[in-house]
Amino acid sequence: MIPSTTRTTLAAASIRPSTHHSCRCYTSCLPLIKRKIYDRPLFRLLHTARESLKDDTPFRKALKDAAKKDKKEKREHLNRPSNPAKLRGPHVDNWELTVGIEIHAELNTVQKLFSGAATSVNQAPNTHVALFDMAFPGSQPHFQTQTLIPALRAALALNCDIQYRSSFDRKHYFYQDQPTGYQITQYYEPFARDGYITLYPHDFPPGSAHPNEPVTIGIKQVQMEQDTAKTIQQPPSTHLLDFNRVSHPLIEIITLPQIHDPTTAAVCVRKIQAILKAVNAATAGMELGGLRADVNVSIRPRDKQLTDYQHSYSGVTGLGQRTEIKNLASLKAVEDAIIAERDRQIELLEGGGVVEGETRGWTLGNKSTKRLRGKEGEIDYRYMPDPDIPPIFVDPELVDHLRSTLPRLSDESVHILTNGNQYNLTPKDASTLLALDDGERLDYYYDVVERLRARFAAEPAMEARIGKSAGNWVLMELGGLVRNEEWSSTRVPSEQLASIISHVLRKTITGRTAKTLLSMKYDGDERPVDQIIADENMLVRPLSDREYEELAKGLLEEKADMVRDIVEKNQFKKVKWFVGQMMARSAEGTVEPDKAEEVLRTLLPLPREN
Amino acid sequence: MSRLQHATRQLDNIFKHASLRAVVSTADRTSLLSAVESADNVSRLSEIDCRSLHGRIILVKDNICTTQLPTTAASGILKNFTSPYDATVVKLLQDAGALIAGKTNMDEFGMGSHNIHSYHGPTTMGRIGVEERSAGGSSGGSAVAVATDQCWTALGTDTGGSVRLPAAYTGTFGFKPSYGLLSRWGVIAYANSLDTVGILGNDVDSIEATFDILNVYDSKDPTSLNLSTRSRLSPRKISSSSLRIGIPLDYNISTLSSTVREAWKHSLQRLQERGHSLHTVRLPATQHALSAYYVLAPAEASSNLARYDGVRYGSRAKGVDGTPESVLYAKTRGEGFGSEVQRRILLGAFSLSAQAIDNYFIQAQQVRRLVQQDFNRVFQTPNVLVDGSTHSENEGVDVLLCPTAPTLAPQLSEVENQDPIQAYMNDVFTVPASLAGLPAISVPVDIAEKDRQPKLKAEDVRENAGMQIIGQYGDDKLVLDVARELTEATRS
After folding, report:
1. Model confidence, pTM
2. What count of CB pairs under 8 Å joins A to B?
3. Is B82 in the A-facing interface, judged by CB distances under 8 Å?
4. Do A387 and B191 touch (CB under 8 A)?
5. Residue of B65, B84, B307 lying closest to A180 (CB–CB)
6. B185 contacts in A (CB within 8 Å)?
7. Contact at 8 Å (CB) between A202 and A414?
8. How far apart are CA A396 and CA B73, in angstroms?
9. CB under 8 Å to B115, separation ≥6 — which residues?
């Protein structure tokens, strides 16, 4: 547990403009707050994804800045107690926040959940619609078995128990985007239960109030369900309906109310999103509307003596009345909405009021959540088992197979990248690599490392340096070039970067030359690296023995006074100055300091050991 | 007589009996007759099976989708609807050479017992000029069409008795096969877990010939019985000369009319005379079956009918519908649905609501399970759908014989102002087999001479009561055979 003072300060900090770094790391590593979330239901165009791809430099800068700020804040905190009441208004310290999250993610499938129609993202409206998708009279659902596979992968990655038997229910509500008048979901018998997700310190944005120990959040269940149609509003009164999205398979992930901090909630959503991508269960994140979250928020006094808090949700007891905030479409919205709702509830309770069980909405940029409907307006979904859809039975062998072939998850990746001698990256670099370009940068990095290992197969001594060096080049040097452009792993093919790095490691080109080479490749020079080096005569050419001697002689004559200091006053350290001068006066990389010193000592002459 | 002669007469009858409102839309007469003629030519050349459907005139209930004719389900909300696809059963009939001559009237979406809740107006049974009796519902149009020789056979749908009850009232045969044998793809859902396509005809042979064509697995219907389970169903016919016939004592209720009770006794006696043995059995859950049915069916109906909003198809209310705060079709649904449909939607919405589901929907499902267990206990053959099915205590029965309805067809004037509960009571004998998904057929049995109405007797109109034969799941062929046996026994 984090000391509450730190937590509250930092939690409150995230709503202050001066502490935007903790948010900026989201924006730089995940393209979020630039999205206009209110556009989300209307357009889900793939190409918008690219515009927001960021290079790593601002991210790394953010990391550094945030780390600095973190230190500074800690210092200030020690020196003078801050004035939380002034910063936060309500007495945040006195209350414990409890949050549960429901995440809806579009599954990566070829077919819809209950018809043979293909799934689609931005095809012409109403071109992928089967009879049942339109709820034609007499049509029936056909569960597409293969949609289970990504759902199972997701549930396994979230450490859930896969249920041998699960079934589908109808959740009724009227809306024009819901052709049957009900959504088919898994209410009574979900396909996965009792999972968990672990948040490690490296999952938290730098500068945020991250806990020192890993935080585990229970997953109550994961269920499959269908998406609705898209409504495109054409003011003042036209609603256009596109049924392509109807019955696109979704999974809903429900966490236990075990989150007590707004940042942790955002980190949890972000991590679930990353896991879904890592196991290829979902393709699009929040930025494309492929994932959205509802949060339920309650507070209770830290002083547990009070007995007014007897609500129980998903088996967690002693909680305050909760409210639900629906349809949050970005990580920032998740965090900000929770903060705003927490503060609203504190203000309400401290003012002698009562929290109503209600559904609220949140618009990015707003200071407060907005009431959508109260308990009396709550929809009774009249859940009913779907009589047309037989239950699903999942063969345990299939589960075992999927478990054994599950792609590597990010926690495991960070562990491998930072521990042992394999890659030798810092946790900071490792999580940066993982967060960039939907994991493409990490794949590229692995590729470069593999190619370097092949080149140095006969030199085990070099192996230890490969991982770190490749990390530096992929993140810093190449990252610096990519900066504001779209990432593409083919722009500088991994083999070519490996070639550049191997020349650097073998000292056959200078660091400066290597950077030049990288820029040339990045800007489209199609010649292989080795050919550019040959064509442009870029190889380091060491001085001959004679050239060393001539260079040294000239210097010693030029600085006769210093020679005297060395020879007569035994100021041997001044030899190093001459070494430095020899290096400075020759082309980069052509003078080896050891060799230069040897030549100088021979000429002076001096014994070896002084 | 050639099939062309039959067809011509039946098509003439459709026209002649238009006032009964049995048929609500018809195909083009000329092209139908030319199709029959070519079928006739084929049959003359190759002497085809008399059971063949080639050139047969078949009418289809208006809740079964057809591309050639509108499909309204007798509802205002679908009054102008034509389906973009054919139901599997329609395709199968056409592929077998049958001709779909028209669509038959019904209670809206299958909800009703007297065929009075129709957008097209009520179907009536008029055997003599002045008579206006209930045709039964909801497949009343199909029953009257068969009774008045407007077709060879007609398709209906049976959710809680909607094929058997009108058959009993109109003196025709009405067969509800085991649930899952006939495809529901293209059959407009009333209550999916109960809806069964049924067949009405003037004899068992025509019904069986039609059933044989339709009794195939359909991958489009997720509730269609799969091939491996089908292969486990015994193709049981009457094997021994002596059947064990069950008399369910719980069906001998106080409201059973004496005429029907007489006919029941008469049927049992005649079967006994032919060497079959009679055995009384108890089906104690029967008394709760009707209430369970009227919880479950409306619950599913309220869900199934949620799609009718006039947005994608169907009719919409005139003028602006919906406010920014509400859905865009409150008015449309209010105008499009008839009163009985609205009543059942509300009933279903209530029994599924959070405060009522435990006491209504869940309880009703439990009763449904008890009803199934009752049947499994009395039948000799185990139910193939139940693992380790409880076998009958001693020797079980082959089939059950009981009345289809407590009374003969009531006067229309009587039922039009009836309390809805009274109408629901007519389904008391048909609902149990529906809840258990069992095959059942209603067979017309002549009533006793003393019970006949003088007016009808004077016109020489046969009067009969419907007797229901219920078999174990999958014993459809046995049920049809026993129907044949009962017909012979009571007519000889």
Report:
1. 0.79
2. 103
3. no
4. yes
5. B307
6. 138-140
7. yes
8. 45
9. B105, B106, B107, B122, B123, B134, B135, B136, B137, B138, B139, B140, B141, B166
pLDDT tens track for B330-372: 899 999 999 999 999 999 999 999 999 999 999 999 999 999 9
Which residues in chain A are contacts of B328 at CB distance < 8 A? Answer: 176, 239
Query: What is the rounded end-to-end Cα distance, in angstroms, of chain A?
Result: 57
Give domain B3-232's CATH number out of 3.20.20.80, 3.90.1300.10, 3.30.70.100, 3.40.30.10. Answer: 3.90.1300.10
Residue type (1 letter), A503: H
- Both tokens of B322, joined, read 């919906």
Alpha carbon distance A22, A67 (integer Å) = 10
Q: pLDDT tens, A465-483?
A: 888 889 999 988 898 888 8
What is A9-55 written as a DSSP string?
HHHHHTTSGGGTHHHHHHHHHS--TTS-GGGTTT---TTHHHHT---
Query: What are the residue boundaries of the structural domains of chain B, listed by start?
Result: 3-232, 244-293+358-491
A357 phi, psi to nearest 5 deg: -75, 105
CA A204, distance to chain mean position in Å, is 10
The two three-digit tokens of residue B361, written as one number: 């929907």
Q: Report the catalytic residues of B.
A: 61, 138, 162
ipTM over 0.90: yes
Looking up tokens 């006696």, which residue turns up? B269
What does B389-409 look like in DSSP terms, one character per residue? Answer: PPPPSSS-BSEEEEESSSSSP
Give me the pLDDT at residue B492, please: 63
- Residues on chain A bordering chain B, Cβ-to-Cβ distance under 8 angstroms: 131, 134-143, 170, 172, 174-176, 179-182, 239, 241, 380, 382-384, 387-390
d(CA A586, CA A551): 9
| Contact: B221, A140; criterion CB under 8 Å | yes
From chain A, pick out residues whose CB is under 8 angstroms from the CB of B192: 387-388
Q: Which residue has the tokens 């030549």?
A: A599
Q: Which of A137, A139, A172 sits opposite B303 (nearest CB)?
A: A172
- Do the domains B244-293+358-491 and B3-232 match in fold? yes
Residue of chain B nearest A137, judged by CA positions: B188
Rounded (5°) CA angle A361-A126-A277: 55
CA-to-CA separations, A467 to A417, A493, A501, B148, B221, in angstroms, rounded: 9, 17, 11, 89, 57
Closest chain B residue to A385, measured at CA: B300
* Of the candidates B179, B191, B163, the residue with the CA atom closest to the CA atom of residue B438: B179
The CATH T-level fold of domain B244-293+358-491 is Amidase signature (AS) enzymes (3.90.1300)
- Which residue of chain A is at minimal alpha-carbon distance from B323? A237
Question: Which of A134, A136, A376 would you mutate first to test chain B, the one with the most B CBs within 10 A?
Answer: A136
- Residue B309 forms contact with A (CB below 8 Å): yes
Residue A136 to residue B84, Cβ atoms within 8 A = yes
The answer to whether the Cβ–Cβ distance between B85 and A380 falls below 8 Å is no
Q: Do A174 and B223 touch (CB under 8 A)?
A: no
Backbone phi, then psi, for B299, in 5-degree steps? -60, -50
Q: What is the rounded CA–CA span in Å between residue B63 and residue B139?
A: 10
Q: How far apart are CA A49 and CA A39, in angstroms?
A: 14
**Residues on chain A touching B61 (C-beta within 8 angstroms):** none
For the segment B109-126, what is each residue's pLDDT rounded down to a tens digit?
999 999 999 999 999 987
Please give the C-alpha separations between residue B473 and each of A573, B190, B194, B381, B433, in angstroms, as whole numbers. 104, 22, 14, 9, 10
Interface contact A172-B328, CB threshold 8 A: no
| Least confident interval from A483-487, B191-195, B307-311, B411-415 | A483-487
Q: Does B295 touch chain A (CB under 8 A)?
A: no
pLDDT-wise least confident of A327-336, A395-404, B19-28, B440-449? A327-336
